[in-house]
Design brief:
Residues 1-181 form the TH1 domain. The protein contains 14 helices and 17 strands. By secondary structure, it is an alpha+beta fold. The chain has three domains: 3-181, Pleckstrin-homology domain (PH domain)/Phosphotyrosine-binding domain (PTB) (PH-domain like), CATH 2.30.29; 192-289 and 504-509, Phosphorylase Kinase, domain 1 (2-Layer Sandwich), CATH 3.30.200.20; 294-477, Transferase(Phosphotransferase), domain 1 (Orthogonal Bundle).
């Protein structure tokens, strides 16, 4: 395979691209010095520290073959990737040293670019089949004592002068989390509660994560297992996230970590940005969805038109389909667990992050925090929770969007259970509903799950129902459709008070420790 194809394939696997914001690839002075098959991985400006401890502006370029040190438009040094022995990194400053045996080391400093440079260096080494990027992690701010500014004829002696600290090997595939957690290792002065481990980061090029980077601002709502907080970044108050925290004893942590390793962004699933473990606590940080939840919208409008409901249900169906394809039952569908963005597109929330509701087909599970009127007959009778239970709940949701109340609602819970398990489905007179819609709801709410629509071929069977005939599924998945229901959003206002009600924090809820 051609070297360019190999690099592209590897970057695609890592879900990143080459990063050349300085456009060195188009500079004639640089192209004259590179090989025909040489490809830029990254270019960044940094500070180079000389032996007199003076900082000078330089540019680093890492290609598939070499690392270049550039002063303006002059290449001062060209180092073959395979000759880089390792890197010393300071935990107390933003300095780092590239160690090059048989040559001289390079001492650099960069607040913005150090970590991403090291990540791409690990990629270049991987392309050369090297054994990962060797990193020496030290606590000193000034790395001058670790830098060899002069060549030493005895290579073994030069290598022996490298830092006497723990040596770590980092590889591109797991570089990010290992590097972040390496930086987050607590010092002896910190208490146990300050120890954090980052389990997931959605941004592949984010290499610094600390809980102290975020402020808790308010409570958005109360979930089944936890309060849900609104966070903001200290450096940019307009960048907000949603926080859900649970105790590690409430979930299967191994299962959760397995799930996070295969996490992929889905168009209609709430987007996880960070997952951080703080001793016995697990913090989930999600992208903030400005429109609030569907329950607030239902309260606001009373009922939706059939066209509006159709597009909401179509998105819910695609979200559930993606969940089911992973062998997972969602298990808690209700308006409160569906978020709505500014364009009217929806996101399932509370997915897999409460009790981490992961169930194989036909597995029994008793301790679900269901909204009773959305529970399926097979769950209430036998404790069976399968993908067919999700389709039953979607039928209840569709009915409620059109009628304004669930079909078996009763203030007496025992009566509600009896109606779900034994009652007949009725549609009130005076509310116009098409024959196709009534047919779909009836097929979704079949008592026997084996006769329920979706049993044979999951959502593909439901998609084929005549009620959905007008929907362009590809356009909808790509979010290219102007939807029939779009929330009323006040421009320039972060929190839409008509959809999101904030509660003030108590003193003991404001901090992290």
């Amino acid at each position: 395979m051609h070297s360019e194809q190999i690099l592209k394939q590897f970057l695609d696997e890592l879900k990143i691209q080459s990063s050349d914001p300085l456009n060195l690839d188009s500079e004639k002075f640089f192209k004259k010095q590179t090989g025909q098959s040489e490809q830029i991985l990254i270019s960044r400006n940094v500070g180079k520290i000389n032996k007199r401890n003076t900082e000078q502006q330089r540019t680093i370029v890492i290609t598939s073959e070499n690392l270049y040190n550039i002063d303006k438009k002059t290449i001062k040094r060209k180092i073959q990737i395979q000759n880089i022995f390792g890197v010393t990194v300071s935990r107390s400053s933003f300095e780092f040293i590239l160690h090059v045996p048989s040559e001289t080391d390079y001492h650099y400093k960069s607040h913005e670019n150090r970590d991403i440079i090291l990540f791409y260096l690990s990629i270049a080494l991987k392309l050369k089949n090297k054994d990962g990027l060797k990193i020496y992690l030290v606590d000193q701010e000034d790395l001058q004592p670790f830098c060899q500014h002069q060549k030493i004829s005895d290579l073994k002696k030069q290598v022996a002068l490298h830092p006497k600290s723990k040596l770590l090997f980092l590889y591109p595939n797991d570089f990010q989390l290992q590097y972040i957690n390496m930086q987050n290792q607590p010092t002896k002065s910190l208490t146990l509660n300050h120890k954090i481990t980052v389990l997931f980061v959605n941004d592949k090029l984010k290499f610094r994560v600390k809980l102290d980077d975020y402020d808790k601002n308010a409570i958005i709502s109360n979930g089944s297992l936890t309060r849900i907080f609104l966070l903001s970044q200290k450096t940019d108050r307009q960048k907000v996230l949603v926080l859900k925290t649970i105790r590690s004893t409430d979930i299967d942590v191994d299962l959760m970590e397995f799930f996070l390793k295969s996490y992929e962004k889905e168009p209609f699933i709430e987007q996880l940005e960070l997952c951080i473990r703080q001793t016995e606590l697990i913090h989930f940080l999600f992208k903030f969805v400005k429109g609030g939840d569907l329950f607030a919208h239902l309260q606001n409008v009373g009922t939706f038109t059939e066209s509006q409901a159709k597009y909401i249900i179509a998105q819910v169906g695609m979200a559930l389909q993606s969940v089911h394809e992973k062998g997972i039952t969602y298990g808690d569908l209700k308006p409160e667990n569906i978020l709505v963005d500014e364009q009217g597109y929806i996101y399932l929330t509370d997915f897999g992050y409460g009790k981490l509701r992961v169930y194989q087909e036909f597995k029994k599970q008793q301790n679900i925090n269901f909204s009773l009127e959305y529970a399926s007959p097979e769950y209430l009778k036998y404790g069976d929770l399968t993908r067919m239970s999700d389709w039953y709940s979607m039928g209840i949701l569709l009915y409620e969007l059109l009628i304004g109340i669930s079909p078996f609602y009763n203030t007496n819970k025992d009566v509600t259970i009896k109606l779900i398990c034994q009652g007949e489905l009725h549609f009130p007179k005076g509310i116009p509903i098409s024959i196709e819609c009534i047919d779909l709801i009836s097929k979704l709410l079949q008592q026997d799950s084996s006769t329920r629509i979706g049993f044979s071929n999951d959502f593909k069977e439901i998609q084929a129902h005549p009620w959905f005939s007008e929907i362009d599924w590809v356009e909808l998945k790509q979010k290219k459709i102007v939807l029939p229901y779009i929330p009323t959003i006040i421009e320039g206002t972060l929190i839409q008070a008509q959809y999101i009600k904030l509660e003030p924090l108590k003193d003991d809820e404001k901090g992290w420790y």
